[in-house]
Amino acid sequence: MSASSPVHRTGLATALAGPLPMAPSDWAALALLGVIWGGSFFFGKVAIAEIPPLTMVLTRVAIGALALWIIARARGVHMPLNRRLAAEFMVLAVIANIIPFGLIAWSQQHLPSGLSSILNAATPLFTVLVAQAFTHDEKFTAGKLVGVSLGFLGVAVMMGPALLGQLGGHELPAQLAAIGATVSYGFAAVYSRRFRHLPPLGIAMAQLATSSLLLLPLVALIEQPWHLPAPSLPVVGALLGLGVLSTGLAYILYFRIVGRNGATNISLVTFLVPVSAILLGALVLGEALEPREFAGFAIIALGLAAIDGRPARWVRGKMG
Question: pTM (2 decimals)?
C-alpha cells in the first residue's frame, strides 16, 4: 500500500487529530471483539491440556499470521517495511503477544478461566496509568477513572464471591502472571498508537509474523515440540479457533479501534469478554443467568457510559 493511498491519508489524519469519540460502529466493533476474545479463554483451556505454553503461543500467532496473509493477498494489501518499522514491530510483538500470551498460557495451567477473566479485566486500569504517563491526548479524566473502576467492579460482581475467594493462596504466582499480562497489554495498547497511519490488516499481519519468528527459536530450545504426541482433534480445533478467530481476525478489529479511538477505549474490551462468555453460555448452552450477573452487567454498562461521556453531557444539557 503506497503512502499516498486513501487509507494512509485517513489513518494519518486520525493520528494527528488524536483519538475520536466512540461512534456506534466503534462500540459494535468493541462488542464483537469482546465476543471473539471471550472464546480465547475456552480455546486456551482446551489446548493447554496437551500443548506446552510457548508452543501453544507460537501455534496461535503463526496460524493467525497465515490467515491474515491469505486475506491480505486476496485484498491486495501490502505492508512495506523498513528498518525502523521492523524494529517497532519487534517491540510490539514482545509486549502485545509473546509476554502476555505466554503468561496467560502458563497461568491457565493453574487457574479457572473465570478467575483469569477477572484478572484480565484489570487491563484498563493499567492502560489508563500508562496512557497518563506516555501520551498527551489520553490523560486522566473523572469519567475515565469512574468508568474503569465501575467496569472492574462489575466484572467482580458478575463472577461472584466464590471466584473472588480464590485470590491469593498457593496459586498466587499464577495470579501474578495473569496480572503481569494485563500490565503488558496496557503498554502494548499505548505503543500501538504509533501505527495508526497504517492499515489494521497490515499491522496485525506484521505483528503476528514477527511474533512467530521471535518465538520459533525459543520454542525449539525450551520445549522441543517435535517430541510431543500428535494433538487430539479437540485441541486442533481449539488451536485453529485461537489462531484464526481469537488472534488473526481479532487483531484486525483491535488495530481499527486503537487507530480511531485510542488505547484506553480498546482496553475496555476486557470488561466485555466475561460478559460475552456468560451470555454465550446462556444462549448456546442454556445456562441460567443469576441475579449477580445481571447486576454485574448493569455496573459494567454504567462504567462504559461514564467513559463515553455522552450520557452525562446529555443530562447536563437537559438540566441547563
Answer: 0.80
Give yes or no for a contact between 278 and 288, defined as CB atoms under 8 angstroms apart: no
User: How many domains are there within the chain?
Assistant: 1
CB atoms within 10 A of CB 189: 28
What domain range is 156 assigned to?
A: 24-309
Q: What span, in angstroms and rounded, lies between the C-alpha atoms of 114 and 293?
A: 13
**Interior CA angle at 124 toward 90 and 274, to 5°?**
105
Residue 18 in any domain: the answer is no
Q: What is the mean pLDDT of residues 277-292?
A: 73
Residue 12 above 60 pLDDT? no
Contact 255, 195 (CB under 8 A): yes
Residue 314 covered by a domain: no
Q: How far apart are CA 170 and CA 166, in angstroms?
A: 9
Residue 8 lies in a domain: no
What's the Cα-to-Cα distance from 38 to each of 69, 74, 270, rounded to whole Å? 24, 28, 9
Residue matched to cell numbers 517497532:
88
